[in-house]
């Protein structure tokens, strides 16, 4: 029964996130927000919504191990499997902005998470630090992408006419209702996942950390995987890396920030080891894209092999 509930929870999480992204994107279009900014913020936050729901629900339930393991597990699943599979399908070019700013920032906050965890605790103050950094990150993204809106506004009368038609077709009450339905699905689904995963862990004698690092992390990362693979198949390869980098940043700053603010979290030795691995994988990603300005098939194969080796280690330790 717990496995069925877990599947239902994942379905609600993924569908809820999908509905929320569609609704939020429509609102952004209505107010003429640049598509690039929509992708970097709304899409990344939408695909990170399952992680947020699970980690916050875990924190409220006192399952701190699952909160941290879910975020750490999701982050290296995103890099090793989402980017690994995507780069096997097609070569992924990386924008200069991602190489110069976004990826180094992800490395910085990964190291910060590791440093703050070394006292075996994430306090409410640590949560506030993460949330402040998250707000600063959003402000910086808005400033760096504000020019794209100006470019769009000067793209000609035809484009303006098309945009006007698109925004007129957006019905705000319906869009707001979709956002609300999406949020309800995310929250309720997150609660089901936490409760059922905890029951599974108890019945099989598994630790909450192991369940969070494997089953829950894989399930909550499905939106990133689906979004990136579809983007690659459509030829929009730059979206794949942007989606993963953005989602990983949100996972650490927003998800763990909120979870720690709600309930201070004890950090186990195992969680610290996993955080070290997550940081190392992020640095490896930076080395690959810095050298080649892209991710190729060989990089993808290396990523997938590393993931399964670590997965085996996680299960037998």
UniProtKB/TrEMBL annotation:
The chain crosses the membrane at residues 76-93, 128-146, 176-198, 210-232, 239-262, 268-289, 298-316. Residues 2-142, 176-315 form the Sodium/calcium exchanger membrane region domain. NCBIfam families: calcium/sodium antiporter. Its main location: membrane. It comes from Paeniclostridium hominis. It is a multi-pass membrane protein. The keyword Transmembrane helix applies. Keywords: Membrane, Transmembrane, Transmembrane helix. This is Calcium/sodium antiporter. The lineage of its organism: Bacteria, Bacillati, Bacillota, Clostridia, Peptostreptococcales. It is found in: Membrane. InterPro entries: K/Na/Ca-exchanger, NaCa_Exmemb, NCX_ion-bd_dom_sf.
């Amino acid at each position: 029964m717990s496995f069925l509930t877990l599947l239902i929870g994942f379905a609600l999480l993924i569908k809820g996130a999908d509905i929320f992204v569609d609704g939020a994107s429509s609102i952004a279009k209505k107010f003429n927000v640049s598509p690039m900014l929509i992708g970097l913020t709304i899409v990344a936050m939408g695909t990170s919504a399952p992680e947020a729901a699970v980690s916050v629900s875990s924190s409220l339930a006192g399952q701190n191990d699952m909160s941290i393991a879910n975020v750490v597990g999701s982050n290296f699943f995103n890099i090793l499997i989402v980017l690994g599979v995507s780069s096997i399908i097609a070569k992924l070019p990386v924008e200069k902005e991602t190489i110069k700013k976004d990826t180094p920032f992800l490395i910085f906050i990964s190291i910060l998470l590791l440093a703050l965890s070394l006292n075996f605790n994430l306090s409410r103050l640590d949560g506030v630090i993460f949330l402040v950094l998250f707000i600063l990150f959003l402000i910086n993204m808005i400033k760096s992408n504000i020019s794209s809106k100006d470019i769009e506004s000067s793209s000609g009368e035809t484009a303006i006419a098309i945009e006007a038609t698109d925004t007129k077709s957006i019905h705000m009450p319906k869009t707001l209702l979709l956002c609300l339905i999406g949020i309800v699905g995310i929250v309720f689904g997150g609660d089901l996942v936490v409760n059922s995963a905890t029951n599974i862990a108890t019945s099989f004698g598994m630790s909450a950390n192991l369940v969070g690092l494997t089953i829950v992390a894989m399930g909550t990362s499905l939106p990133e995987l689906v979004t990136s693979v579809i983007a690659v198949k459509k030829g929009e390869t730059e979206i794949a890396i942007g989606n993963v980098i953005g989602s990983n940043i949100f996972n650490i700053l927003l998800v763990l920030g909120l979870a720690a603010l709600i309930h201070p979290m004890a950090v186990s030795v195992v969680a610290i080891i996993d955080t070290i691995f997550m940081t190392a994988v992020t640095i490896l990603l930076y080395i690959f894209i810095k050298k080649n300005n892209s991710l190729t098939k060989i990089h993808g194969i290396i990523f997938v092999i590393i993931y399964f080796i670590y997965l085996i280690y996680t299960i037998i330790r």
